[in-house]
Amino acid sequence: MSNRTTASTAKPEGAPLLRQLHLAVSTGETASPTQVNLARRQLSQKLFFGLLWLAGLLAVGILLAVVGYVVLQGAKVVNLEFLTTPPAGGLATSDVGGMSTTVVSTVYLVFWTIVIAGPLGILAAVYLVEYAEEMEGTTGAIPVLVSVVRFAVEILAGVPSIIFGLFGYALFVSAKSLGWSFSLRSAAVTGACLVLPVIIRASEEAIKAVPRSYRAASLALGATKWQTAWKVVLPAAAPGIITGIVLSVGRVVSETAVFFVTFGGTVRAPDTVFDLSSPGRSMALHVYYLAMETRAFDKAMGTGAVLILTIILINLIINVVSRRLTSKLEGR
Amino acid sequence: MRKIIDRAIRYVLLASALVSIFVVFLILLFTLREALPAFREYGVLPMLTGTVWRPQQDQLGILSMIAGSVLVTIGAVALGVPLALAGAIFLAEVAPHVVREVVRPAVELLAGIPSVVYGLFGMVVLVPGMRRLFRVPGNTGFGLLSASMVLGVMVLPTITNIAEDAIRAVPRGYKQGSLALGATHWQTIVRVTLPAARSGIIAAVILGVGRALGETMAMIMVIGNSIRMPQPLNSNPLTLFLSQARTLTGNIAVEIKYATGIHEDALFATGVVLFVLIMIVNATARILIQQGTRGEK
Lengths: 332, 297
Prior knowledge:
The complex is a heterodimer of chains A (332) and B (297).
Chain A: H1 17-27, H2 31-75, H3 80-84, H4 100-131, H5 141-158, H6 161-173, H7 184-208, H8 212-220, H9 225-254, H10 257-260, H11 283-294, H12 297-330
Helix pairs in contact in A: 2-12, 4-7, 4-9, 5-7, 6-7, 7-9, 8-9, 9-12, 11-12
Chain B: H1 2-42, H2 44-49, E1 53-54, E2 59-60, H3 63-94, H4 97-111, H5 115-133, H6 144-168, H7 172-180, H8 185-196, H9 198-214, H10 217-223, H11 248-255, H12 261-296
Antiparallel strand pairs in B: 1-2
Helix pairs in contact in B: 1-12, 3-6, 3-9, 4-6, 5-6, 5-10, 6-9, 6-10, 7-8, 9-12, 11-12
């Protein structure tokens, strides 16, 4: 590398930088070799910074090219009719139909996963932060259990989604176990397991960030631990918790593998949100089926574009919420 | 009265916390229980080293899928990691404030784009492109190369985000010390900042590897899903990457819906192999991250 230059001193190639610098300064009699050294080092910096700029822009460029391509191609077919017509399904009819029922199925699916995983995840986080921490250092079964819980959350967060799918298939879908078949409830419960670690982690962070003085004040007023957690800590942590929930919504919307093996894939949506035993097809699944089975790439692009816009919307919501959180913290 | 409620609620909360353990337990129980007959009947070693996958004829070798998963991950790392790390250094050290404010949220957003979208792009743009670019007999465009490219792009945001955080977490004093000694900014990055952030950066790469191994739908869409062992198409060994293949994840997703009996068990066994592989990768990342934080203290 050119910055290992020895121009200023008689030191051999590869001498430590500091030593070179030191010698360059102490020998000092000839200013110009030092300047040459500096010039070289600055030149190599310019070169590598140029390369870094290139890499940074290339990385963003590639990603934007992929997303931009899908959005632009998709824009050709997306219109009100596309959004409000149900898909036709089947090979022969790839040129008709829209995506309306997949939007409905996605909404139902998101609703139930959050209804199941949201409260469970938030309550678990309350326990982990508010109740478990005071017991740290004590002996007994509960501290051990708590560390096992933390480990389990860690594992769940790292398990690939197709394994969740396998599990959901074996436990809910398969006739050998619960026999729920491909249905909204099979998909929703499996999806809830998938997003549980996301909600627990985000809620934990949010609850931890609530200042100790809030709790102290509430307890000093005679409130019990739960009253404090419910009326003081949770409201203060709400923006962070909501961020976690919205993040989970995004995860469910974009997840495909899990729902591929639990939700079925029929173009017909469940009749109502309570029609739990009916199968369905989420938007992400629709993209897959259109591309792989119907070979209707233009419609797949259209659905993909709607999917991308949904994710962008979700990200905007997260940004707004977390910005409110920061301003609130700063206002303290 | 309030005390009683308080006590009751304590147990409700504990129960919610225990759900995570319960879910992990159920996942292990059901995956292993279903996989066991396949392991017992066919044997673990023959399964891991067998290259013939014909479940209808009781041949359950999954080495081709293991090879597919490993090769496509290597390809994705080779293509995605250099760019991701350069991007992370760029964002953490070089980019002006304005650029960073725009690029960082964009990269975060791209980490959330559904994998089917990347798969769709791969099918429509990359696969025909690769078919036209490499005129080798037997090259369909579907295969390891297209899959590696799709996967490389998919892990880019993940690795960039985590590696950037690691670089940013290097104490300011290190950098200032180096700069004060007369080193240029670039010398400081290479000799001080990056070595100090090393464990975090390696962890970022390993987490990317974990994500790559676990990816399912995008892989099915571009890799061709052949059950044959990937092999070079002609005398040039690099054409290995033009070969069609199948990943462990893809094997499960493609066949689970119609599989029955020992075939179904073998797919669960595939899941167990995948699970073990990912757990090894994640544990490595975790150990490295812990070492990193200990080193800073």
